[in-house]
Design goal:
Blueprint (H helix, E strand, L loop, with lengths): L2 H20 L9 E9 L4 E10 L4 E3 L12 E4 L5 E9 L4 E5 L4 E7 L1 E10 L5 E12 L4 E12 L8 E3 L16 H18 L7 H6 L9 H30 L4 H6 L1 H19 L8 H11 L5 H13 L1 H16 L4 H23 L12 H28 L7 H19 L16 H17 L25 H8 L35 H11 L3 E6 L4 H11 L2 H10 L1 E6 L13 E2 L6 E2 L2 H13 L6 E5 L16 H17 L2
Parallel strand pairs: 12-13
Antiparallel strand pairs: 1-2, 1-11, 2-8, 3-7, 3-9, 4-9, 5-8, 6-7, 9-10, 12-16, 14-15
Length: about 675
């Protein structure tokens, strides 16, 4: 293969691998965040409460229909014989009134927050589900958008005393303005698509392209029929992978997400799986499906009609299993712990990329002459994948280590592993290391040299992290800086007495924080890990409270801390203007004394650990179960402005903090 072609294929491989490691998650922050709760009045009467937190400067309109005016907020309830509505939806929050130049009339609207209430009567004493949709319009000074969100209340059959809040399950499936997009699903799709392209460059798959394409060229078929069969062949490959994703989605579903992402059993299992995949790619062993399965599928592929192309696609997937198995497994592991659509979207992206060249070369067989010949470079791709699998697997072990406070994979140890792994990868590219199935390398080509330079540059970049460098490019993928045994920045800050952030007048704490022996805030910030303790201190200091819903295994939380919190303007505001409290929702180790156990109003279960307590608090109070989530409260626990989630815009975060302080000062 020519040096030019080798560069093209190896560079594509390395870029895809690098993207799969460093790509971060993003999510849309909607202008309106809905939360729901139920209050029982008596044995049969319940109040359904709908609370909207509205981002400034957006506002939402009330239920009154105005000619040529804005779209009103409309509550639609699915028909059911299990309950009866009493009156219409009441507006608990009084709407503001103002002349609107955009509509050229006086409108009634809500700003910052709005609460609605619907009374219902339960007809039969059995578990009752109340479902429906809220449609609304939101506007700021320049634009308007339509929004919609579904709600679902699960009212249990058991009765409670009057005026008691009971369990309510709300479909937080989230407000969807017409201008919005599901960015995280697209991110997963493109990541899986890239993984599918990588799979094509493995020794089991690449040589199959010309062999498979010849299936559509033999015999006396018309050009039209060959095209149809080729397209159906590609669609069949995509469908097979999509079915795999659907099976995973149905098997796991969204309810197991927290368990998969934080519990030590799945995380250690995933680590071992990635270790297994790496050994597989390194050539330690080969795993193939039984020959009878492949032979049976191959025989069916010889049949006519649509069954031939379908079973040819099925055979292609089966034969390529020994190389694609680890890659498919990686995509499924990354997506199985998320929403139910993620495995389906992931496998759809993988299947499209995998099927694309087979289909295109079947349609345009003359392109086959431009393909490089199979050779040792294909095994090199497999080995590179092995190094990446090895590095990625450590992330799962790190999550379990942080969540359970094992202390075996601190930041320095984690970085040491990565430095060694990628150093070995660079040496492999230079031909200093050889694996079982590698061809002899008589000289190092320019493509390998360039990739080795990139790899060793990355190694050099990581080395300062051993003494406390933040390594922003890896934010979220490394253990937090607080896990370091030696942090040069921390030592410098401790020795400095001139910093405003760390001066004794601005510590932002009133007494020793509970759990501070196990939990830490980043960047030497001072604060609490118990909500009640933080509120008491806020009252004593007359400051607002900054609530950080976070987690040991939260990638986006670490990114926010390393990319946003680290800004000196943010650090100064956090420490001087607020009492900080970090609520870890995934901590499994810290047990609460029996006097602090709580019975959830959400699922009725008793919460006995710190993590379970604050996970329940986030769900019942703010209607969310994703981290990070930031809330600014007054000393009485009342929300000052709408909460904020993952967003790497530093100026927007500063504006969020300043608006919270301004709102607090108004209420003094």
């Amino acid at each position: 293969m020519s040096s030019k072609k080798e560069l093209r294929y190896l560079l594509l491989t390395f870029c895809m691998l690098t993207l799969s490691v460093w790509s971060g998650k993003s999510q849309m922050v909607d202008p309106v965040n809905w939360t729901f709760s139920v209050k029982q009045v008596n044995d049969s009467i319940f109040e359904l409460h709908f609370n909207a937190a509205i981002e400034l400067p957006w506002h939402m309109y009330n239920q009154v229909v105005q000619k040529d005016g804005p779209e009103p907020t409309v509550f639609s309830f699915d028909p059911s014989s299990d309950f009866q509505r009493i009156d219409s939806v009441a507006e608990i929050t009084k709407p503001l009134e103002e002349f609107d130049k955009m509509f050229n009339l006086t409108v009634h609207f809500f700003s910052v927050e709005a609460e609605f209430m619907q009374k219902i009567k339960i007809v039969k004493k059995k578990p009752t589900i109340v479902k429906g949709t809220i449609d609304f319009q939101i506007c700021d000074d320049k634009q308007c958008s339509l929004g919609s969100t579904d709600f679902l209340f699960n009212i249990p059959s058991s009765t409670h005393s009057g005026n008691e809040t009971v369990a309510a399950e709300a479909d937080q499936g989230v407000t969807q303005p017409i201008t919005g997009s599901t960015k995280h699903l697209w991110g997963l799709f493109w990541l899986a698509f890239g993984s599918g392209l990588i799979a094509l460059l493995t020794p089991c798959v690449f040589p199959m392209i010309p062999m498979t394409v010849s299936f559509f060229m033999h015999g006396e078929k018309s050009r039209r029929k060959s095209l149809f069969e080729a397209i159906f062949f590609g669609i069949s490959i995509v469908a097979i992978f999509a079915i795999i994703g659907t099976i995973v989605a149905v098997t796991f579903g969204p309810g197991i997400a927290n368990f998969l992402s934080t519990h030590w059993i799945p995380n250690v299992l995933f680590f071992l799986i990635f270790l297994f995949f790496a050994a597989w790619f390194f050539g330690m062993f080969e795993i193939n499906l039984p020959n009878w399965i492949i032979s049976k599928s191959d025989k069916r592929a010889d049949r006519g009609g649509l069954s031939g192309p379908f079973f040819m696609a099925f055979t292609t997937v089966l034969v390529s299993f020994s190389c694609t198995g680890p890659i498919v497994g990686t995509v499924l592991v990354q997506s199985a712990g998320g929403q139910i659509l993620q495995p389906i979207v992931g496998m759809l992206g993988f299947g499209i990329a995998f099927a694309l060249p087979f289909t295109l070369f079947a349609i345009f067989p003359s392109w086959l002459t431009s393909l490089p010949k199979s050779g040792g470079w294909l095994n090199s791709v497999k080995v590179l994948l092995g190094f990446i699998e090895l590095a990625l697997g450590l992330k799962f072990l790190s999550i379990a280590d942080q969540t359970y406070h094992w202390g075996i994979l601190d930041r320095e140890v984690y970085l040491a592993f990565w430095i060694v792994i990628f150093s070995l990868m660079g040496m492999y590219l230079l031909g200093r290391i050889k694996f079982k199935h590698d061809s002899d390398i008589t000289h190092v080509g320019v493509p390998r040299l360039l990739l080795a330079i990139v790899t060793f540059t990355f190694v050099v970049y990581m080395i300062p992290g051993m003494i406390g460098a933040p390594l922003k490019a890896l934010a979220g993928y490394l253990p937090p800086e607080t896990s370091s045994d030696f942090d040069l920045k921390h030592l410098i800050r401790q020795s400095s007495q001139t910093s405003n952030i760390n001066s004794s007048n601005n510590l932002g704490i009133c007494e020793k924080p509970e759990y501070s022996d196990r939990l830490k805030l980043p960047h030497d910030l001072k604060g609490y890990f118990d909500f009640d303790q933080a509120l008491n201190c806020a009252k004593a200091q007359n400051k607002p409270v900054f609530v950080d819903f976070t987690g040991h295994g939260c990638v986006n939380c670490r990114e926010m801390e390393q990319r946003v919190w680290v800004d000196p303007r943010v650090l100064q505001r956090l420490q001087e203007n607020f009492v900080l409290v970090a609520l870890y929702v995934d901590d499994k180790v810290i047990k609460l004394p029996e006097s602090e156990w709580i019975t959830s109003t959400y699922d009725g279960k008793v919460k006995k650990t710190l993590g379970k307590k604050y996970q329940d608090f986030q769900i019942t109070r703010f209607g969310q179960n994703t981290q990070p989530q930031y809330a600014l409260l007054d000393p009485n626990g009342k929300l000052l402005i709408p909460t904020r989630s993952y967003d790497l815009n530093v100026d927007a975060f500063i504006d969020f903090l300043d608006k919270g302080v301004a709102e607090f000062n108004k209420k003094k």
